[in-house]
Prior knowledge:
The structure is a homodimer.
Chain A: H1 4-11, H2 15-22, H3 30-43, H4 49-56, E1 61-66, H5 72-88, E2 91-96, H6 101-113, E3 118-121, H7 132-140, E4 144-147, E5 159-162, H8 164-177, E6 183-187, H9 193-208, E7 218-220, H10 225-238, E8 244-247, H11 250-262, E9 272-277, H12 279-283, E10 289-293, H13 296-311, E11 319-321, E12 324-327
Chain A binds a DNA duplex through helix 2 and helix 4.
Amino acid sequence: MVxxxxxxxxxxxxIMTVSKVLRDAPDISAATKAxxxxxxxxxxxxxxxxxxxxxxxxxxxxxxxxxxxxxxxYARLIMALEDRAYELGFDLFLAHTLEKPEREExxxxxxxxxxxxxxxxxxxxxxxxxxxxxxxxxxLKLPLVVLGPAPEFCAGFPRVAADEISASREITQHLxxxxxxxxxxxxxxxxxxxxxxxLEGYRRALRDAGMEVDDRLILQAGSGIEDGFQSGLEIxxxxxxVTAIQAVNDLVAIGAMNALLSxxxxxxxxxxxxxxxxxxxxxxxxxxxxTAREPKFRLGVAAxxxxxNLLRGKPPENRTLRAELVIRxxxxxxxVNAAI
Amino acid sequence: MVxxxxxxxxxxxxIMTVSKVLRDAPDISAATKAxxxxxxxxxxxxxxxxxxxxxxxxxxxxxxxxxxxxxxxYARLIMALEDRAYELGFDLFLAHTLEKPEREExxxxxxxxxxxxxxxxxxxxxxxxxxxxxxxxxxLKLPLVVLGPAPEFCAGFPRVAADEISASREITQHLxxxxxxxxxxxxxxxxxxxxxxxLEGYRRALRDAGMEVDDRLILQAGSGIEDGFQSGLEIxxxxxxVTAIQAVNDLVAIGAMNALLSxxxxxxxxxxxxxxxxxxxxxxxxxxxxTAREPKFRLGVAAxxxxxNLLRGKPPENRTLRAELVIRxxxxxxxVNAAI
DNA sequence: TTGTACGCGTTATCAC
DNA sequence: GTGATAACGCGTACAA
Lengths: 340, 340
């Protein structure tokens, strides 16, 4: 590959001059610039970012460490981060942990060896003390932004996450405002912090409204469409008198809705369904869902802002983002709901 | 950060010795190795991969350039590539093009500046001549693997893709075998190569069966659930006598299915719906779809194999992977279908 | 306005 | 077994 040296020789100038021209230094004559630039593009010069970085000690490299991309919820987050990184002139490493602590440690070490200037991490939830690699990261003072609900041991690092409890409370509140009194909650696995937060929001809204929480209305659903479908059928089977359903996420909500539709129960005329938005809602224009859209994209943008501040040496800050309520369709309880 | 030099000083040996120890060279005494290693880990030494790469001219860096991760179809592909890269000791850059040619060119140049050793690209479909950046890539002889259906101008690069025509043909064939004679095809945008391939497969199956292709049965649908929904309604409105629907992808299929359900037409009792699988099918256990599952994960693995061969200087090779037909439920045409 | 000397952190080579 | 020297490609600092 072409080096500055090659250009310098053919242009009969010093390497330094070429270097300056290509970085558009102010102290080079227009004539020299034109000549060198022409030559550079003719020769197909490609700068060597790593060599430059070695010299300047600035790599403009960031790392993103996530469990895996299969969860579509991360997709927009990745997009946002990559997009901001692009605009700021950073290149982004992607690494998966597959929820394995050893692998997490290993990939972090590898990115350290690449001299990344900062790291975005969705840590693997685990109990106990702070893993060695995290202690090392704080010793190194490497800018690190934790994304989403963080385990205990990440307390020392800045965190960017959505306020899931409030979001969930607002959904329930919205359904209550419409006059619903028996709202089913389709919950997820109890180890998942965000599932717990969403259930907590539901509980708080009911308490704030001075209502009892009827535990029979809280169904263990899981996190996929099929889980929601089964729970939807269960709601019908058990004749719980439900007029609205709130789900831990919108896959579950869509599943529940499908179950209702399959039994010829109309949504939203007979029942309202609410869930948390993820990528599917964009595709589900016709589905009458009330959703709290977790601002994944904004979350990515905020995470990058926090990162920038860290890079500039400013003190770490946490960001909690409000989720926005998106009301696609929702109705007050209807007479037909006795059918459920 | 700690450098070899720092360790060397404290160990009273030369930098070279430290370097050799850390790379486990055979010509260093066990005693020296033990001493240096202890010191290195005590001092928290992190190797500088970029500096080493500058010297060895091997960066062990790969780039992945895709339109965007929002399409969940890419998720498993990314996973597979990242996973293989991890095992082979490569780090992976992720870059988005957002379907913008300028941006594609720009990010490719940036990754070139990083001296990536190879590039995986999902090129932006566009007509006309080979864009300058691609010519440059072939001039540079940079190992490049094109993922998925490739535009014309990528003909010179090795390609790893699913055999979409055969997959589509098999779906149609399956529906024909069941006795369906009027199969609607919900097509996508005509610029999308994979949409065209799938339509072609449908056509071939009909031709192979000695049947005429009725162009009224080919509907321009788009690529999302809502598009499928509209086309589903259209099929009903137009009374086309359809007993089965094949869609360009499963989002469209699901949309069409929703439309049928909303009009109380049972699937698959009254009609069969077939589409291409992506991540949604996993979530749609209850949906009676016949799908051709594009082997995204295997596709990633194959792509990395091709890349490895290129890196070893072997000649480029194309890989076409068979898609597997997944029959979730499907029926022969029923009497009711006159309703459509 | 241009050029020289040196260093960034590492490794290849070869002498000791 | 170990170490001196040079080089990878580039940029900072300063001299000319």
